[in-house]
Amino acid sequence: MKSDTDNSRSVKSNVGGALRPPRVPIGQWLGVLPFFIFSSLFLIAPTLVLAYRSLESPEGGLTLNNYRQLVNETVMGAYGMSIRISLTTAILGGLIGFIVAWVVSRGGLHPRFRLITGTFSGVASNFAGVPLASAFVFTLGRVGVVTALIELLGVDLYKSGFSLYSFLGLTLVYLYFQIPLMILTILPAIDGLKREWREAAENLGATSFQYWRYVVLPVLTPSILGTMILLFGNSFGAHATAYALTGGLFTLATLLIGQQISGDVLHNPGLGYAVAMGMVFIMAFSILIYSVLQRRSERWLR
Amino acid sequence: MSASSAPASVRPSATKSRFWSGLTYFLVSLYFLIPLGATFYWSLRGKKDVLGFEAYRKLFADTNFLPAFSESIINAIATILLSLLIIVPTAYWVTLRMPKLRPVVEFITLLPFVIPAIVLVFGIIRLYSRPPLLLTATYDSSRVVLICVYVALSFPYMFRAVDNGLRAIDVRTLTEAAQSLGANWATILFRVIFPNLRVALLSGALLTFAIVIGELTIALYMAQHTLGPYMADLTRSKVYEPSAMAIVAFAITWVAMGIIDFVGRGASGRTRTNDND
Question: With a cut of 0.95, is the ipTM above it?
Fold first, then answer.
């Protein structure tokens, strides 16, 4: 704080170009320093520790051995299930979310629906974790309301192979936060489609199909794909909902790491670190593609 | 919408498309409303054969509920204050004085999306639960670490909210005006910038609150008795209370998001121009 005041004094003496205080860089750094300290201590350092440990061999020294061991049944099963669920909920959530966003933006419904949808999506995309898992247990669990209603119709869901604690069940639950996230992210992009484009297309005699094929999709595809990748990451890193639903015993990459923290289930601490870093790599890769696609879509939607 | 400018021949297809829009909207709403309805129905069944608020009464009477709830609220408030104190100067300095740092800051605020919570808590435990950096020796020191992790996780939301807020006001002119009146940097921050960012700060704060209040993963593995782990326990040990708990959690999120929307609409009403759909 002290050098802050020094800084301001030097600013005042520098008449005219008031916003460029000469050579008191320390004062400026004080404003951003806490940010860098916090991110280093609580985001970067913990990740680097895992990265380092994942490369450490039991005898000391560096090795890629832990990463080679990722190819085993437990790890690949967990990664595989995580990737399957994330792909499915990203594609389904992306499609449904896009349709809903289109409907409230351009479907001719009362503007009120758009407002409600926006607010509700904000709520539902943050409604992950234990409460969400509970809500689905009360709906589609063994004694859930919908399960009971369907039983009244003479069909026993759980005897006919359905389970909330399965791939299908988890997919249904994850869509509850995936669809709203898609709606929130894609709505601004749809709003960016200029009305004149549609009118121009119609004046040139384009059919509805042609308008979609040659105007809407080329402009929106980067946004749609980018957001779907965002959804993929959102589901891939999700832990709380699956933990609450299955007690942490389902085959899923995040749950496997949880089990590894509680007690070396992989019987190899180094492998545990490699599993964690593997997740970071996959997430980093998907965020990278997301930002590239997002930049591309900004060309049109300005 | 465009009905006024559309030629008359388009009318029937517009009505038809409105029908399909309505139907789609209705079906998707069912997916979102049924779980809430079912949970609410269960939460009213706490007493045999009568609908009532017994489950809520039992939940609030549970000796573990209020301590966990208030601990989470205090954690959330501490997180918000710390986060604001760190992010506002950072966003301000980056906007005004050190634009070259912007890509670095933006990159770091992306990290919470790249590092899943479960991986982060894994690293935190490995780094801070053994010498030489033993920070999790007691419950309270772990709690401080937990709050600090939450602060780091709030950076993306807080930075984006504050950054948007700074873009909406003319920081440069405000700063120059304050400077020419003889204000120092602390005065500028606390008496000029903060008040002008009220809406942005409130949005960032409420979003952080909604995320932190029921957070499970990190609190669980750091053995904290906050609301998230409490709720997870509850689902395993009780029948009706979890439904009441889920409804309460949903209501909290709804209130937080509702306020963000409400104040946001008032502020952005003038700046938004061409979205009159």
Answer: no
